[in-house]
Amino acid sequence: MFAVIYIPDFSLQAVLRHEPGLSERPVALVAESTPKSPVLQLTEAARKAGVAEGLSSTQALARCGAIVIKTRSRAQEDAAQLALLQCAYSFSPHLESTADGICTLDLRGL
User: Fold this and answer.
1) 3-class SS at 8?
2) Cα angle: 50, vertex 56, 59; to 5 degrees
3) In this predicted model, what pLDDT tens digit does every residue of 59-76 receive, in sequence order?
4) What is the secondary structure of 24-69 as a DSSP string?
5) pLDDT of residue 1
6) Distances (CA, A) of 57 to 36, 39, 45, 46, 80
7) pLDDT value of residue 85
8) Which residues pair with 4 in a beta bridge?
């Protein structure tokens, strides 16, 4: 028997993990900090304000003046993935880092 732990919007969650005060605010995640960089992921508050994935940073700001634009951080994603694996390891020593934000656990014998 296997179980999978999946963290939706993992890249955004990795950034918000270091700034928990932003989780309730409108936040958009982009790959690089340029005006034309598309929004990759966003918080529910940003979604409610009319922002959507694929909009440019400039378009996101036009729709929601209070939006916080954050840039994707590989270092923060690596740290979050490690935390995910450490948490999963408390359930089973047989696990696989399947993808960013996804961990598969082998539950046989538990």
Assistant:
1) coil
2) 50
3) 999 999 999 999 999 999
4) TS-EEEESSSSTTPBEEEE-HHHHHTT--TT-BHHHHHHH-TTPEE
5) 87
6) 6, 6, 16, 12, 25
7) 95
8) 104
Could you give the 3-state DSSP secondary structure of residue 4? Answer: strand
> 0.85 exceeded by the pTM?
yes
- The encoded tokens of residue 9 equal 């919007």
Question: Please, which residues bridge with residue 104 across strands?
Answer: 4, 96
Number of C-beta neighbours around residue 31 at 10 A? 12
Structure confidence at residue 6 (pLDDT): 97
The answer to whether the CB of 26 falls within 8 A of the CB of 38 is: no
Residues of the chain with pLDDT under 70: none
Q: What is the rounded CA–CA span in Å between residue 79 and residue 63? A: 32
